[in-house]
Amino acid sequence: MKKLLTLCLVCLGFLAKAQTAGYQIGDVAADFSLKNINGKTVSLADMKSAKGYIVVFTCNTCPYAVAYEDRIIALNKKYSAMGYTVVAINPNDPVAQPADTHEKMQQKAKDKGFDFPYLMDPDHIITKQFGASRTPHVFILEKTAKGNVVQYIGAIDSDTEGNNPDKINYVEAAINAISTGKKPAVTTTKAIGCTIKWKKQGA
Amino acid sequence: MGSVYAVKQSKLIVLLVFMLFSGSLKAQNVKLLSVDQLEERVSKGGDTVYVVNFWATWCAPCIAELPYFEKLQATYKNQPLKVLLLSLDFKSKLEKAVIPFVRNKKLANEVFLLNEVNAQVYIDRISKEWSGAIPATLIYNKNKGIRKFYEKEFTYAELETTYQSSK
User: Residue B132: which of A61, A63, A191 has the nearest Cβ?
Assistant: First the structure.
């Protein structure tokens, strides 16, 4: 009995670990329903003509996220016409980061002219499901018969500062591969970014 | 006797002035440091525990916890502990942002700027557990073979407890 209990605890431990680890390449991402800045909820399934999604965990405040804003807008301009739309999700708790409130997000979207959903995940449910750990953090999903398959996780490109002529555009390369029926050559990358502003325990 | 004492005293004053001066010089100096150089510093340095904090001048939670790393070093200055503050600012920001920041905050800890280009290589070399988010902290204990990585913000109490358990 004791052994069984230990085994159960170990299994639970693994489950907990798997949950915090989030999606891996090849996993099918569950759809979600999150509130957009216009008050309406958005699900991936709503975008019926989409071939895939560029899910970007980003926020108003992180200087590295801000550094990528124009590049995120450019990605949407370039790829939404091909069926790959940007879906931005703000993972931060607006209490922990008061500059990431609903109103401030509306303002940001207006100022920058975001033409893609900018969703709120104040309880971090979808953030944890994906395993996003920083802003900006990209997950490219390909719509397939078995669901939305995770094809790329990581950075937008290799040059946050934006002045390296040899920079590698990871997201563009991944979508170019997926859209021509290939697997991306680079499926995961790491990058410096801001920690997610988690809800304070007990708050 | 009196003159010997005076000489001793003046030597002490010179030493104190030198220490103060070198201390302030050190605080204003930010050197570039590669991952190889960091590993070498830790393996060849005279201290036992190394607390390496990864931060940046643009990272608000990093700036918020910098005083804790200052306090940790100051509190345990008689123990074989060395706190190193390793900035992840762009190299182009060294003169304009990092050095002025270090001067304004009067940081007493040794401050470096990471001298690496490829994030796909250096992030994993620091720790496979690191997603790249900062603040992040690496704690070594050379004698115990400890190399623990924390991708999180510390309170002073947490930092102190973590140091105590790594000693």
Answer: A191
Residue B8 is assigned to a structural domain of this protein:
no
Which backbone phi and psi does B124 adopt, to 5 degrees? -70, -35
Per CB-CB distance under 8 Å, the chain B contacts of A194 are: 59, 61, 133-134
- Tell me, what CATH number does A82's domain have? 3.40.30.10
Residue range of the domain that includes B151: 30-166
Separation between Cα atoms, residue A100 and residue A42, nearest integer Å: 19
8 Å CB contact between A178 and A74: no
- pLDDT, residue A13, reads 47
Q: Do B92 and A161 touch (CB under 8 A)?
A: yes
> Which residues from chain A sit within 8 angstroms of residue B60, using beta carbons?
61
User: B56 contacts in A (CB within 8 Å)?
Assistant: 192
ipTM of the complex, rounded to two decimals: 0.85
Which of B3-7, B73-77, B80-84 is predicted with the least confidence, judged by mean pLDDT? B3-7
